[in-house]
Write a structure and sequence with these properties.
Length: 262
Amino acid sequence: MDNEIFIVTQIKKLVYEISKQILDINSLKEIEKEVTEKGKNNYVTTFDIKVENKLKTALKELIVESTFLGEETGGKIESKGYTWVVDPIDGTTNFIHGLQYAISIGLVKYGKPIIGCIYSPSTEDFWYGIKGKGAYKNDIKLQVSQRDSIKDTVIEFGFPYDTSKTENILKNVLKIKQAGAADVKRIGPACLDICRVASGECDAYFEYDLKPWDIMAAMLILQEAGGTLYKMDGTKYEFTQGSIIVSNKSQKLKKQLLELIN
Ligand code: IPD
Ligand code: CA
Ligand code: CA
């Protein structure tokens, strides 16, 4: 446990430092010059690359025998030993537009997530979870909401880069709203969407086609806060990648969402 706390403390220092050294940007024009489109509507900036490179070096120093999977530099999750799973800027579109984004760092041991840390530079919120030891936002323990049906819930969703599912997603949003949700929101980025379910600010979230670096750290935070994560068919999510429904622990809410979302 002490060792895990030490790792979280070091990561906290590291993301604060990165935030000051690399991400302290005065104007959106500064970011605009650094943007390239790596796929349709899928952007990357030189800031994403700089943050990932810095993290890759520092995290490998923290656990010398670890391997690394990052969105921008690749890698894979090893079934043995430790692997860092990193999204240097989750929410690059938000970042380019001056909206909230986050640095997401997960640590996997023998294929299972054991630590998740997420930092939002614009709000200075630091979220973390340690397997079996709970999840925290700015050192306050997290717990999912208690709402037991779709009525009065706030549900989040996301749009994947592949636009072929957009119409279907919007149909889902309409159905959820008509079923009695207080609100259905697109906020992003994915890791913070999941964290907001962990903290009870939102009650559920769904998104298609996510990658391990979008989910890994947030998934542990969510589960440690009592939340659940499953595939679109209601079966257990196995944490590689794909489409997910995230919710509090209510079985009734889960059933309702599964009936509405397809
Ligand atoms: C994206 C963000 C966004 C989500 C997309 C992700 P990126 O990550 O998390 O909120 O809707 O599906 O790909 O590309 O900005 O790291
Ligand atoms: Ca991402
Ligand atoms: Ca990213």
